[in-house]
Amino acid sequence: MIIETHSDVTEAVLSEIERAPDERFRAIMAAAVKHLHAFVRETRLTEAEFQKACAYIATLGQLSNASHNEVVLIAGSLGVSSLVCLLNNGGKGQRQTTANLLGPFWRTGSPPTANGASIVRSPTRGDPIFVTATVRDLDGQPVADAEVDVWHASGEGVYENQDSAQADMNLRGKFRTDAKGQITFRSVKPAGYPIRVNGPVGELLRAQGRHNLRPAHIHFLIYKPGFKTQFSQVYSSDDPNLETDAQFGVTRALLGRYVRHDGEPAPASDVKETWYSLEHEFVIEPGEAKLPRPPITGKASGEPPVSVVLERIDLR
Ligand SMILES: [Fe+2]
């Protein structure tokens, strides 16, 4: 097609997409092109702005490697990851769900761990926490024999894979739900942590005066044949950044009650002073049991990365 006007461009691209035999490909690409062209028209995107956008997208790829994914990070920073999660869970977005973002730090091969045991595998600073998680189906019945992978950052906000000082698989464990649909374990209360800001994500946040912190949380991955595999994160109810999570992950269903106990008898006799308890319930839906592709495969060597914390400020 010879292009006469700017609207011809859209028509030409859409008619080429029609040649694709795959129906879903046609639907996704036609919608993408319609919205993308409409966006260019609405914003009257200048040539300089277009060149800048292309450079940003190239940088997203260049900064991604085996231990960091800048593309996933910007998808989260723009709320896209959360939107995809909420539209694909809770009866396709019809009701609340305990599903959440997988995040960048799930590893396969987490050590099988007995209920009640600790996942602290090398000395780790932080208050002791005792966690009980219950898995139920849509009818509220406990789901027994589900595999539940657990992982979280230390009391200093660092995952073991980022920190060669922590033992391999520290603060990670794989549990199996009992007849009550429960797993229990001991760990240390995690701290919130900053996401990396040395690339396009950092520029995006700085332009808006946003901080780069994620509120403290524990990750869960629940796997049981016959049910849609669920990834989740339970956020710490006492974290100051719940309303301003840099990844827009905090939902009402995942506000966890991390209850502080001072000097009360703890479930373990070596715990004398401050400790925390957390009880949370997950609801899983019928569907395909499929593990995700692990975003990372191993542990970093050397010093943990220097973390940069941006403050939330008013720029206007
Ligand atoms: Fe995390």
Summary keywords:
316 residues, alpha+beta, five-stranded mixed β-sheet, 7 helices, binds fe (ii) ion
Describe the structure.
The protein has 316 residues and is of the alpha+beta class. It is 25% helix and 20% strand. It has helices at residues 6-17, 23-43, 47-62, 70-77, 80-88, 90-93, 200-208, and strands at residues 128-136, 147-152, 172-176, 182-188, 193-194, 213-214, 217-223, 230-236, 255-256, 258-262, 274-283. It has a five-stranded mixed β-sheet with strand order 3-2-7-8-9, with no helix packed on it. The chain has a four-stranded mixed β-sheet with strand order 4-1-11-10, with no helix packed on it. A two-stranded antiparallel sheet has the order 5-6. α1 packs antiparallel against α2 and α4 (70-77) runs parallel beside α7. The longest helix is centred in the first third of the chain and has 21 residues, at 23-43. Fe (ii) ion binds next to β7. Residues 103, 105, 217, 219 line the site of fe (ii) ion (FE2).
Going across the major beta sheet, what is the strand order?
Answer: 3-2-7-8-9
Distance between the termini: 47 Å
Q: Which hetero ligands occur in this complex? A: fe (ii) ion
Strand count, sense and barrel status of the largest sheet are: 5 strands, mixed
Helix % is: 25-40%
The gross shape turns out to be globular
* Structural class by sheet pairing and helices: alpha+beta
Mean pLDDT: 95
Beta strands, count: 11
Q: Runs with pLDDT <50, length 5+? A: none
The oligomeric state is: single chain
- Number of alpha- plus pi-helical segments: 7
Order of helices and strands: HHHHHHEEEEEHEEEEEE
State Rg: 22 Å
> Which band does the percent of strand residues land in?
15-25%
